[in-house]
Amino acid sequence: MRLSALLPLLAAVPLVAFPGVATAAPGCFDPAAALTVEEQRLPASLPAGGPAVGPELVRLAGLDPFVAEVKRDLCAARSPRRAERVVTQAGDRLWRTTVDRAQGRRPDLGTLDRFDDRPLYWARLQLSSAIRQWRPAFALPDRGALLTAFDRGSRGLDDVRFPLGKTRRVMVSGFDPFQLDGAGIRISNPAGASALQLDGRVLDTPSGPAVVQAVNFPVVWGYFDEGIVEAAYGEALRDRARRPDVIMTISQGRPGRFDIERWAGAWRGGFPDNNNVSVTGGVPPAAGWPQPDVQFIETTLPYSRMLGVTGAYPVDFNQAFCVWPDASQPGTGTPVCRSDAPAPGEIAASGGGGNYLSNESMFRSNRLRLGLGLTSLPGGHLHTPVLGQPTAPDALTDTDFEARRQAIAAEVVSLATAAAAGDRTPATPPRATDTPRAAMESLPGTVLPG
Fold this sequence. Notes:
Layout: H1 8-11, E1 15-16, E2 35-36, H2 37-40, H3 53-60, H4 64-76, H5 80-102, H6 118-133, H7 143-154, E3 168-175, H8 190-198, E4 202-205, E5 208-217, H9 221-225, H10 228-237, E6 246-252, E7 258-261, E8 263-265, E9 267-269, E10 280-282, E11 296-298, H11 303-306, E12 315-318, E13 321-323, E14 336-338, E15 348-350, H12 357-371, E16 379-384, H13 399-421, H14 436-441
Parallel strand pairs: 3-5, 3-6, 6-16, 7-12
Antiparallel strand pairs: 1-2, 4-5, 7-16, 8-11, 9-10, 13-14, 13-15
Helix pairs in contact: 3-6, 4-5, 4-6, 5-6, 5-7, 6-7, 8-13, 10-12
């Protein structure tokens, strides 16, 4: 599955047809080769000036020698097979190195807070742009396959290895940073940071030890179209001997609180992704996977146990969702938002997790869970609090920023522990704490017309 599962994926990512910023030796890399919008942000600095933010975060995390080494190895490759080995190993090593750094096993790597997820994101872009601009001395049959192999490994998709036996198994996913234009260039995503903290950990639960495997998803519609969520969760769920006992997608949500989302909806609201692409309409199926035709999917996470978790932030159970007023004309009119339950025939305008890629990660992973007949397996979505940015406009980090991210990640670990333990979900969910429309509109990336 390493090269075949998502081969079309990066080839489908829109490119920008103007020169990128070369970061390697002339003669091996072509700085005029087109880059994606994400990659084009590599030279961006803060409005107040200073070094390029992405490369500086990579340097502060001690990952710049690794990036330079991979580029040298790519330039030295003399065959397609060797190039494939270089990029595949680079992706796997980047993920494993950043997980080890995040969990304190690599104190030798840089001075940046080890909980910081941003170096992984920017190092990935430095290397994907290098692969895209690499000009080998031999015919390259499939650059897209190299990009996919590297990207898949660098997101942990090739690193999901659950043990056999009675140990409980939990699979989670985080996300890359997003909303990176302008002053947002220094944004971090606490969901991605939490995934790095969770990958490979053994949680001590009342039901016994639970092993966690984590991946990080891109904030790009095209990847979801090509089935990255189904590939990640599907490969794990199809393995009967090592199947996870719990699946939980995680993303950044509302300010000041965690939300366990009750509903996922089959609608895309059109908010631009990290390549500035907007998509509106129903969530399409992913080829090759069993997926029922449904509009809403309800969480099966043990939210009663999770709501008992205490930490720096309150934990709520969000029951809001929105439907289109005329089921025969989805996408028109003002969505009707409620907090009871969707009626048969209603068409989703938003799940509890909004109508951006957060919602879609829950919808796709749990649509697959249902398609595989795993109706009772706990699955759902957790929204973290908004992390915000460092206080000073010219700062890449500060102590308060780091403390908030660490507090969020620590509480995610506690919530994952509660989810792994499991219990019977109560018949009557707790009451919603917000008006339904306000709950939707407070989510980043959610678009509700009217």
